[in-house]
Amino acid sequence: MAQATALRLADEKVGWAGGDGWIARTDDGGKSWKAQYSEPYPVVQLFALNDKKVWATLDIGSSKGLQLIRSTDGGDSWSEVGVVPNRGFLHFLNDNDAFVGNERSKDGGATWIRLKTPENLVGDAYFHDLNNGWAVQKSSGKLAFLHSADGGKSWETVMSRATEVEPTNAIIRSTGKNDAWIELVGDSGMSQTSYSLFHTEDGGKTWLPAIANNTAGAGPAPGFSMDDKANSEGTGSRPGQLYVVNPSTAFMGGDCPACDVPKTIMTTTDGGRSWTPSKQEFPGYGEGLIAATDAKHVWLLANDSEKSAVLYTSGDGGASWSKVHSFE
Question: Of 212, 218, 177, whose CA–CA distance to 198 is shortest?
Fold first, then answer.
């Protein structure tokens, strides 16, 4: 019985999945997988620039961080690169420049430089490129979105908003220098977790309240009251994984631990102004991993503590799904 902890696509056919002590590759859209790496360490993240260059982080139990390994031949062989100092979202711009949280590497992940970030941040800062970074700051009864245009040397508050609850985490993604999606996670209670999602396409000048998931058990979403509305209420009673393709397209998962079929996913193709929930729901009470290559091709890998992880794929933006593989 295998559980997956990481999923990444190079294109609609080629991708990698990782779990506790393994990494595997598919070349046929997820139908079959070839084991490529086997070590007694959990895979934390995978990132691919293309079908040849791929990185993975491993939890080796070190207080210094995560072991970074790299392949330049599509995963056939791997080599140790360095130690990633935190568990932020790892992404490479090219062979040399990489970011993870507020750390930057100029040498392909061998060494890392800590970038300047403001105090009282929620979650990790996110740097899209060498200049543009985003962060969420908390204060009493308020939250602020911050932007840096000079690689963290200086920060500007681009939005300030009152909030009834203090965010417990912030997940930030960006697909362009003026693009940022910021998910705020709120309180939890009765197997429910409130959350909100904001989006800007103009460098932070204006923000769209894309999702506000208020719940009876967890209270209002960060930045909202129980009576406030956003463009969507989301699906599920707590957030699943957010995957952003471009400034127009994103996929948002939802979980419902109290439901017979707990996993849901919805799609936006207009920057979060409207969302289309998939008619299909998915089993699995563990983490749901989402990966996509464009607005049409999206994968959902559903985990369950008592069953093997199952991969579902869609070629029409989530309108219909096929069960393609079980990781036995």
Answer: 212
The sign one gets for the Cα dihedral 117, 122, 127, 128 is negative
* DSSP string computed for 74-104: TTSS-EEEEEE-S-S-EEESSSS-EEETTEE
Structure tokens at 239: 């957030």
pTM reported for the whole predicted model? 0.96
Spatial distance between the Cα atoms of 276 and 317, rounded to a whole number of angstroms: 10
| 52 burial via Cβ count (<10 Å: 0-12, 13-18, 19+) | middle
How sure is the predictor about 229, in pLDDT bands with cuts at 50, 70 and 90?
confident
CA dihedral 325, 234, 170, 70 (to 10 degrees): 20
Report in angstroms the alpha-carbon separations of 290 from 82, 148, 293, 300, 314: 27, 28, 11, 5, 11
pLDDT for 265-297, tens place per residue? 999 999 999 999 999 999 999 999 999 999 999
Among the listed residues 128, 2, 102, 6, the one whose alpha carbon sits nearest the alpha carbon of residue 59? 6
Q: Rounded mean pLDDT of the chain? A: 96
Taking residue 173's Cβ as centre, other Cβ atoms within 10 Å add up to 20
Distance CA 71, CA 76 (A): 7
Binning pLDDT at 50, 70 and 90, where does residue 305 land? confident
d(CA 52, CA 48): 8
pLDDT at 2: 85
Amino acid at 132: N
User: Measured between alpha carbons, how far is 40 from 19 in angstroms, rounded to an integer?
Assistant: 10
